[in-house]
Design goal:
The complex is a heterodimer.
Chain A: H1 3-28, E1 36-41, H2 43-51, H3 62-78, E2 85-87, E3 92-97, H4 102-121, H5 134-150, H6 156-167, H7 189-207, H8 211-216, H9 220-227, H10 243-250, E4 253-255, E5 260-262, H11 266-287, H12 289-306, H13 312-326, H14 333-358, H15 368-371, H16 374-381, H17 385-388, H18 406-413, H19 429-435, H20 453-461, H21 472-477, H22 483-494, H23 497-504, H24 507-513, E6 515-521, E7 526-531, H25 534-545, E8 552-560, E9 565-571, H26 579-593, E10 597-605, H27 608-617, E11 624-632, E12 637-642, H28 644-647
Parallel strand pairs in A: 1-3, 9-10
Antiparallel strand pairs in A: 2-3, 4-5, 6-7, 8-9, 10-11, 11-12
Chain B: H1 3-12, E1 25-27, E2 38-41, E3 43-45, H2 54-57, E4 59-62, E5 97-100, H3 102-113, E6 123-129, E7 134-136, H4 146-160, H5 164-171, H6 178-188, H7 194-203, H8 215-221, H9 227-234, E8 248-250, E9 253-258, E10 260-268, H10 275-295, E11 298-306, E12 310-313, H11 315-318, H12 329-343, E13 350-357, H13 365-376, E14 381-387, H14 398-405, E15 412-417, H15 423-437
Parallel strand pairs in B: 10-11, 10-13, 13-14, 14-15
Antiparallel strand pairs in B: 1-3, 2-5, 6-9, 7-8, 11-12
Helix pairs in contact in B: 3-10, 6-7, 10-15, 12-13
């Protein structure tokens, strides 16, 4: 064993206990993670893993090189940070860098356990496969593509470019449908027709007709007509969002020498399918980033600080690490996620309290604020001292108490483990929920009293048994401390970022956490704050997280103009496309379709004069919405205006992502 | 294949083999550095995709007391989301830059430009212990030079050793006693003590004392062994270590010279220095300052702005100031000379005097005053950077005159910058001038 491996082994031994205990603690806290295999890696290996998106083997491509380069420069110039890498697999694999401090290792381990729970239990992850076997799949992909690159009959650069073309459409999949491989049995329609057509040409040649006859009877128009002998075929029946899948099924490659479309080769088709599969595999992670990272940060903090998983000397470093992660400036999805989870927990717990209070005789939603002394409420909901300070109350705990783990209590009393280090072992889920009760934390002390009239009314509306308790004390003795955590686990099961934000973002949350929206204003030529209203903030966040924050593009017609051209449509939601990029992308789509490609979209146009006027009057100009058709035929891009009728069906009328105040408008 | 290969492929993106991607590369730039950090550009390749127009998209920010209508700092778009009419690279997100400290920057620049400027130490600030190469007779045990002690001991042993067996046999010769053997041994150069002979002689039985009839007989029968042979056969059982053989290693005393540098940045702020020219000056001076900060232990900066008069300013103001007046470059050198004389004596400070402007000067000022002063002010390096975005103006001859006068000099550099692309060359020109001398 060389010294490096020896070092890794020594570190691994030190980490065995934290790893086991983190997993035990996670279970106690109600999480059900996949089993996690931890690997100790060195600095270089870590950078490689980060570059490869958390896996050890990926297909050859320059973008991993780019990420590696960035990663290296970043750690070289900005100092190394502790990274957590865990991949969505069963069992999950997580990587720990050997040079990290113990505090960082522990933080990573607790964070990872929570991610593994999310992977295992969030339904969106089931869309790809219940048991992804990801590492093996990605390794297989890598080997297949490597083989093609090394095949002497295939030019390596051609493979690389083909990958680039497909990657431009990486996000153009239908992520809300379960993944299924593209049907490959049977020849596909288009190729069949194309081949039939070639047959006709061949037969005509065989007939050996005179030039004249061919020119008069079997001319180009006639041939074209044969091609479309079924009359106009429009497919797909419904607009198809899985653009890669559609191209995989009906696309062709363009042969520059022959100047015509040719069927894709096997390697082209297979690479398309491979990249599509990877896009589907990674989609759930992109769709749940805010939730998933917030979830991991939430439980990490519960374990690290509240359960003192970090030793006191490690804690300072840990706090520092958290500050680094959450304190990065600007909008930070990790932070948004954590804040939202905490808010969900607090509101659910508050709801429990309010429901109890409303069942007290003579307390109604109208008078609750007058009748209830919130100071007293805070005192009443505080967890029992025996739960917050387990080691000093070991003898007072009752093994029959549902909050106490009788077995562990017994072992603790016999000194089988260090109760000062692992007080949580003595408690059950119920006990821990009380011990961690969010509403008694200093930063949440005003939370219960901030409950609004509206919420009180809403809660009381469904309440029948409203005079069950004689006093506030009696009511609060009954509170269910686990309600917040139970609810959080339900949410992590079924939601994705979009639904999560939609459901839980409230004005209270936006005010408390100081979110605002901004827009580019023509009159000033820069970005201005437009609103702090939660509906507006929500709109902008939805825009950012719906469909990976990308515009929705669908295949509208695979036989556009009855000429086998492709028609893509941009489903316009009031925010226009980056037209320059769209054109570049269209050129790549051509490579995967083999014939001319079109894109219908709606743009907002402003003329110089309007902008001038706006600047003078300090009013925002109203842009003109205009339908456009962008076409690429393999040679050049052309753009022409379309009548409104032709694009009307693309414009969504029920959404409006603009947050500019009305009075700003001209 | 593997990551190394991926890295090579990435470097080739935009190069010959992957020209098709050249349009999708963005580079950050070096400008806008805060005083304590510099941003290093990196290459980002962004494949095109269907994306929203960044401006039309707006966004969400977080921060206290946001009010309607308040401007927000440039939002940080993901790389590649730059819109068509924005200048690429200008709106770059945070992650396109890496901040580095001056020392690393200097290293990078050395590598990049193949420079290796060796900073000169001036003021002695402390005496430092160097390598343990000196030797003394006393010292802490940990610095004891055992190797030399062993060697000396061995030498001593060799010098004192003798063939005991042989001498014992000599005592057995009939008629020889301790005194006569001692006499004989002296003659043979055998370092034996008389007392030892006496003890040995007493230990012999009377029969043994007459074992050999004569010295000749004994010598013939008993083989005499050299010390070296004996040691080789029997090993060294004991080395006589002596206190006087002890030597202790001692660190060499090194005078640590602090490498002080003062950089005088002079800039023409007269009316003719428009926005573009000012920016070029900043782009050139900032990395130079950075480089020297990284090279020396202690760097100080003097900023002098001038039109027809010169005055000292802070760095914050330096690159932004604009005044109306005419231009007299010598005014700045007069002030520089005074400041240097007063605060940065030549025997303690490395001096760099960098001036920049559009080469316009009042008539005869260059030849009659500036050039003589440049000759008079002792400095590691004088430099003049001409910033003329539009090429040469007719009356702007300061740079040329200076260049002509100091042609071939190893401490005066002149560089011309007409666009940001020239900056790196200019920096090289300036820094390599001094290197040539070193």
């Amino acid at each position: 064993m060389n010294s490096d491996r020896y070092e890794a082994k020594r570190i691994a031994e030190d980490l065995e206990e934290p790893v086991d205990e983190a997993s035990n603690l996670a279970e106690k806290l109600g999480l059900h993670p996949y089993a996690v295999n931890y690997w100790i890696v060195d600095y270089d290996e870590m950078n490689e893993l980060i570059a490869y998106g958390g896996f050890q083997q990926r297909y050859p491509h320059w973008r991993w090189g780019m990420q590696y380069d960035q990663q290296q420069k970043q750690s070289q110039f900005l100092g190394g940070k502790a990274f957590e890498i865990v991949n969505n697999d069963n069992p999950s694999h997580a990587f720990l860098q050997e040079s990290n401090s113990m505090a960082d290792q522990k933080a990573v381990i607790t964070h990872v356990e929570a991610h593994a729970d999310f992977f295992a239990n969030n339904e969106w992850f089931g869309m790809f496969a219940d048991d992804p076997d990801a590492a093996a799949m990605l390794a297989r992909h890598s080997e297949t593509i490597q083989e093609y690159m090394q095949d002497p009959d295939i030019e390596r650069a051609a493979v690389e470019k083909w990958i680039d073309h497909v990657l431009c459409l990486e996000d153009n999949i239908d992520q809300h449908r379960p993944f299924a491989p593209v049907e490959t049995d049977g020849r596909d329609e288009l190729r069949d027709r194309e081949e039939d057509f070639e047959d006709i040409e061949a037969k005509l040649d065989e007939l050996d007709l005179s030039e004249e006859v061919v020119g008069q009877v079997f001319d180009e128009d006639w041939l074209e007509a044969q091609r479309d002998d079924d009359g106009e075929i429009t497919f797909p029946d419904e607009p198809e969002k899985d653009v890669i899948g559609f191209l995989r099924q009906h696309g062709m490659a363009y042969d520059r020498d022959a100047e015509k479309a040719v069927a894709m080769t096997d390697w082209q088709r297979e690479i398309l399918e491979i990249l599509r599969r990877e896009a589907y595999y990674f989609a759930p992670q992109k769709m749940t980033k805010v939730m998933n990272e917030g979830w991991a940060s939430y439980w990490e903090s519960a374990m690290m600080s509240k359960e003192a998983f970090a030793d006191s000397d490690e804690f300072v470093k840990y706090a520092d690490h958290m500050a680094q992660v959450l304190g990065s400036p600007g909008f930070n999805p990790y932070k948004l996620g954590l804040e939202l989870w905490q808010y969900v927990e607090n509101t659910e717990n508050r709801r429990e309290i309010v429901e109890r209070l409303l069942r007290v005789e003579d307390i109604t939603w109208r008078n609750l604020h007058d009748r209830v002394d919130f100071e007293q409420v805070q005192d009443l909901i505080a967890p029992e001292e025996a739960l917050t300070d387990v080691p000093s109350h070991l003898d007072d705990l009752d093994p029959e108490d549902p909050r106490v783990d009788a077995d562990a209590l017994d072992r603790a009393r016999n000194g089988e483990f260090d109760v000062a280090k692992y007080p949580w072992k003595v408690l059950t889920y119920e006990g821990l929920a009380e011990r961690h009760y969010s509403l008694v934390e200093p930063q949440n002390r005003g939370f219960v009293s901030r409950v609004g009239q509206e919420e009180l009314e809403r809660v009381s509306r469904y309440m029948f048994d409203d005079a069950r308790y004689e006093s506030v004390a009696e009511a609060l003795a009954d509170i269910d401390y686990t309600r917040g955590w139970d609810r959080m686990r339900e949410i992590r099961e079924s939601h994705n970022d979009v639904t999560f934000l939609d459901e839980f973002l409230t004005q209270e949350f936006v005010d408390e956490n100081d979110y605002f929206t901004y827009e580019y204003t023509q009159s000033t030529g820069d970005y201005r704050v437009t609103s702090t209203d939660y509906e507006d903030v929500k709109k902008k966040l939805m825009l950012r997280f719906t469909n990976f924050g990308k515009p929705t593009i669908v295949v509208e017609d695979g036989n556009y103009n009855n000429r086998n051209e492709l028609l893509l449509s941009h489903k316009y939601n009031g925010v226009m496309l980056d037209l320059g990029q769209a054109k570049d992308t269209l050129e790549r789509v051509f490579e995967l379709w083999g014939r001319p490609v079109n894109l219908k979209t709606i743009v907002k146009e402003l003329d110089e004069h309007d902008i001038e006027v706006a600047k003078r009057r300090d009013r925002e100009p109203e842009p003109e919405e205009q339908g456009k058709l962008v076409r690429y035929d393999g040679e050049e891009i052309t753009t022409r205006d379309l009548d409104w009728e032709e694009v009307e069906h693309l414009a969504a009328t029920d959404v409006d992502y603009d947050t500019k105040p009305d009075e700003w408008l001209a | 294949m593997g990551l190394k290969d991926d890295l090579d492929r990435y470097r080739e993106v935009g190069e010959e083999r992957r020209q098709d991607l050249a349009d999708f590369i963005q580079y950050g730039d070096l400008g806008q550095s805060r005083p304590d950090e510099v941003k290093i550009p990196i290459k980002i390749v962004d494949l095109p995709e269907f994306a929203y127009d960044q401006r039309d998209m707006g966004g969400v920010g977080q921060g206290e007391d946001a009010e309607e209508g308040q401007p927000v700092g440039q939002p940080q778009p993901e790389p590649g989301d730059g819109d068509e009419d924005g200048e690429p690279g200008e709106e770059g997100g945070e992650h396109e830059y890496y901040e580095m400290d001056p020392e690393e920057f200097a290293q990078e620049l050395d590598e990049e430009l193949g420079l290796d400027l060796e900073p000169k130490g001036k003021q002695v600030i402390e005496e430092k212990e160097g390598d343990f190469t000196d030797i003394t007779r006393t010292g802490p045990t940990s610095t004891l030079d055992f190797e030399s002690l062993f060697k000396k001991g061995l030498k001593r042993k060799l010098a004192m050793d003798f063939d005991r067996n042989y001498l014992r046999e000599a005592l057995k010769v009939d008629g020889m006693g301790p005194a006569s053997v001692f006499e004989w041994a002296r003659g043979e150069n055998i370092p034996v003590a008389k007392a030892w002979l006496e003890d040995e002689y007493d230990a012999l039985t009377s029969e043994e004392k007459t074992e050999w009839a004569s010295m000749a007989e004994m010598d013939e029968t008993v083989e005499r062994q050299s010390t070296a042979e004996r040691i080789r056969r029997e090993g060294v059982d004991q080395i006589p270590y002596r206190r006087e053989d002890e030597r202790y290693r001692y660190p060499e005393i090194i005078e640590e010279r602090e490498k002080n540098v003062v950089v005088v940045n002079i800039r023409d702020v007269s009316g003719s220095m428009r926005e573009k020219k000012r920016e070029l000056v900043e782009r050139t001076f900032t990395p130079l300052d950075w480089y020297l900060t990284g090279k020396y232990d202690n760097a100080e900066f003097v900023y002098i702005a001038h039109d027809a008069e010169a005055w000292e300013v802070d760095r914050d103001e330096f690159f932004g100031i604009r005044s109306g007046g005419g231009t007299r470059i010598s005014s700045a050198y007069e002030l520089a000379a005074a400041v240097l004389e007063e605060e940065y004596p030549w025997h303690e400070w490395n001096r760099y005097v960098f001036a920049a402007g559009d080469s316009e000067n009042s008539s005869n000022d260059t030849e009659e005053r500036v050039i003589p002063m440049m000759e008079e002010i002792p400095a590691n390096l004088h430099a003049y950077v001409e910033t003329q975005p539009s090429g040469n103006a007719i009356n702007a001859t300061h740079a040329e005159e200076v260049e002509r006068h100091f042609e071939g000099s190893d401490n005066v550099a002149v560089a011309y910058v007409s666009s940001p692309e020239d900056v790196v060359d200019a920096i090289y020109e300036i820094l390599s001038t001094e290197e040539a001398e070193a």
